[in-house]
Automatic annotation (TrEMBL):
NCBIfam families: PRK00393.1. This is GTP cyclohydrolase-2. PANTHER family: 3,4-DIHYDROXY-2-BUTANONE 4-PHOSPHATE SYNTHASE, GTP CYCLOHYDROLASE II-RELATED. It comes from Spiribacter insolitus. Binds 1 zinc ion per subunit. Its cofactor is Zn(2+). Its EC number is 3.5.4.25. The gene is ribA. It comes from the Bacteria.
Length: 371
């Protein structure tokens, strides 16, 4: 497990990682922080064909979906590798110039998942290698380059989110919810931390407590970004829960629907050129929503909560919690205000992901009519 954690960090630092698997496996590097020097070094270590690995989402967005499946490997001539990497790291209109695309191998699939877990852009350079022959073998032996096994990676991914540990807690009076307690959970792999905010005295809660399951949004929650409705939802949830005598808010480390802040900002850049929130994510290589809620269900279980009224407009959250064994006794709408900056985002959520936002649009229309 420790080795996979190091692999995530190495990729984030722009270092190469060897993923052992089919034949000799591949030496992989993240495209987003590839430099000429790193590329040259990698080509000196591994002697096989260099390819660019892209997720199926991105392949589809680029019209390369013939082979999509779990992702594609596009062979790119050495001479144009750097240029291709730079273009792909930017997003739009960046098609790999190579012509031979094939579905990714299982090892390459795990490599793409590593990039995603590291909240990097899921686009990699992969150079096939034969560690018994290439210089790479010596580097691996000396510990200069980390070599991981694809099965090891798969097991790590399958286990994450399932065993969050309760680490520490404290009373933190909040404005509008003075009797509040923060409980911090850390996922077993040590990577992500989530907070359960327990509002009020559980002995005096309504029989079925309200639950707000909120995904982190630095821009909205902290700075009041007008591009989304997160900050307003967060604060109104705390107030509403406190007002009805208490309940729970889970603050989950799932920035940008799970793609991370760096990618969310990249996606905002693409949205400014006319793509909607989902198409922008897809062009970067992500699905509509990359979040999983197993960790939320495990936190609820630890808190002894099995039945809730969920504050959300997102049908996906209800389905996911139910699938994880939490009984959803009812749904409460939770709205922010519509404005000219968040209108495209809310419209895409309603039209493409089926979020229940009719009231937000109706309220806004009514306000407009009164003016
Ligand atoms: N990728 C991406 N994420 C975004 C964008 N705008 C906001 N987000 C993220 O979307 C998530 C919204 O979280 P929530 O408000 O809990 O979830 P929701 O799916 O909107 O559902 P409810 O608010 O419960 O109805 C946060 O993680 C934000 O950071 C965007 O344009 N792109
Ligand atoms: Zn937001």
């Amino acid at each position: 497990m420790q080795r996979i954690r190091r692999a995530l960090i190495d990729l984030r630092r722009g270092e190469p990682v060897h993923v052992a698997g089919e034949a000799g496996g591949s030496l992989i590097l993240a495209l987003e922080n590839l430099t000429e020097a790193r590329l040259e070094q990698a080509l000196g270590l591994a002697s096989g064909t260099p390819s660019v690995l892209l997720t199926a989402h991105r392949a589809e967005a680029l019209g390369l979906d013939g082979h999509a499946g779990d992702g594609i490997a596009v062979a790119v001539p050495e001479a144009s590798l750097m240029e291709t990497a730079r273009a792909l790291a930017k997003g739009r209109d960046a098609e790999p110039t190579g012509t031979t695309a094939r579905p990714v191998t299982d090892g390459e699939r795990q490599a793409l998942e590593l990039a995603r877990r590291a909240t990097l852009l899921p686009a990699l350079l992969a150079i096939e290698s034969d560690p018994d022959r290439d210089r790479l073998a010596g580097e691996i032996q000396r510990g200069e380059v980390l070599s991981i096994d694809r099965g090891e990676a798969r097991r790590f991914f399958a286990d994450s989110g399932r065993h969050p540990e309760r680490v520490s807690e404290a009373r933190v009076p909040l404005s509008g919810a003075e009797q509040s307690r923060f409980i911090l959970y850390r996922e077993a792999d040590g990577l992500l931390e989530h907070v359960a905010l327990v509002i009020g005295d559980p002995r005096q809660w309504p029989t079925t407590p309200a639950l707000r399951m909120h995904s982190a949004c630095l821009t909205g929650d902290l700075f009041g970004s007008l591009r989304c409705d997160c900050g307003e939802q967060l604060r109104s949830a705390v107030h509403a829960i406190a007002e009805e005598g208490g309940g729970i808010l889970l603050y989950l480390a799932q920035e940008g629907r799970g793609i991370g802040l760096a990618n969310k900002l990249r996606a905002y850049g693409l949205q400014d050129t006319g793509l909607d929130t989902m198409d922008a994510d897809q062009l970067l290589g992500f699905g509509e929503d990359e979040r999983r809620y197993d960790v939320a269900a495990a936190m609820l279980d630890d808190l002894g909560i099995s039945r809730v009224r969920l504050m959300t407009n997102n049908p996906g959250k209800i389905a996911a919690l139910e699938a994880a064994g939490v009984e959803i006794a009812g749904r409460e709408a939770i709205h922010g205000e519509l404005n000219r900056h968040n209108a495209p985002y809310l419209t895409a959520k309603a039209n493409r992901a089926g979020h229940w936002l009719e009231e937000v649009f109706a309220d806004s229309a009514a306000d407009g009519n009164q003016r």
